[in-house]
Design goal:
The protein is α+β, with helices and mostly antiparallel strands. It has two domains: 12-79, no CATH class; 87-161, Immunoglobulin-like (Sandwich). The chain has two helices and eight strands. It has helices at residues 12-25, 35-80; strands at 87-94, 99-105, 115-117, 123-124, 128-129, 134-138, 143-149, 155-161. The strands form two sheets. It has a four-stranded antiparallel sheet with strand order 1-2-6-5, with no helix packed on it. Strands 4-3-7-8 form a four-stranded antiparallel sheet, with no helix packed on it. A hairpin with a 4-residue loop joins strand 5 (128-129) and strand 6 (134-138). The longest helix is centred in the middle third of the chain and has 46 residues, at 35-80. The radius of gyration is 40 Å and the shape is rod-shaped.
């Protein structure tokens, strides 16, 4: 639509004379700048304007989309962290049987996923898990990091030291 169909070619001396004739016909003072300087300014201004326009549009789009990035990042991290209602309601150390007994309560507890890590990094599983929420670990001494997961991916960690 805005594309030039015809390209005119004229030598610079004839173009300069035509420009001076236009100024004389309009009763204006003659052009003092050379035609070469006018042509170079026109080319530079056109390129600068086009480049500046596209850079401004790109910057505006980036500015408008920036809040969306932070919103999506916050939404993603919000999905990963959910609250769990798992609680250790009671616990005691049964020294006679060398075990630690605790009672956990809450909804959606994954009793089969409960485990503990010893000081040396080895993983131990409960000796017994009762239907009333009682969990029994073999424990002699040291530190146990007990992990109690729920079915939605949340984990409650308890630390036992002796």
């Amino acid at each position: 639509m805005f594309r030039r169909n015809k390209v005119y070619s004229i030598n610079k001396k004839a173009a300069n004379e035509a420009l001076q004739n236009v100024f004389a016909a309009c009763e204006q003072e003659p052009n003092t700048q050379s035609l070469d300087a006018l042509l170079i300014k026109n080319i530079a201004n056109t390129t600068l304007v086009k480049t500046g326009k596209w850079m401004s549009i790109a910057l505006l789009v980036l500015i408008l989309l920036c809040p969306m990035v932070f919103y999506m990042a916050g939404k993603e991290s919000g999905e990963k962290h959910h609250k769990t209602d798992i609680a250790v309601t009671s616990h005691y150390l049964d020294e006679e049987n060398e075990c630690f007994v605790m009672t956990v309560s809450g909804s959606d507890i994954d009793y089969e996923g409960i485990y503990a890590k010893k000081d040396d990094g080895s993983i131990i599983y409960p000796m017994e898990t009762g239907s009333d929420g009682t969990v029994r670990f073999h424990f002699e001494s040291g530190t146990l990091n007990i992990f109690i997961p729920d079915t939605e991916g949340g984990v409650v960690q308890a630390v036992l030291s002796k």
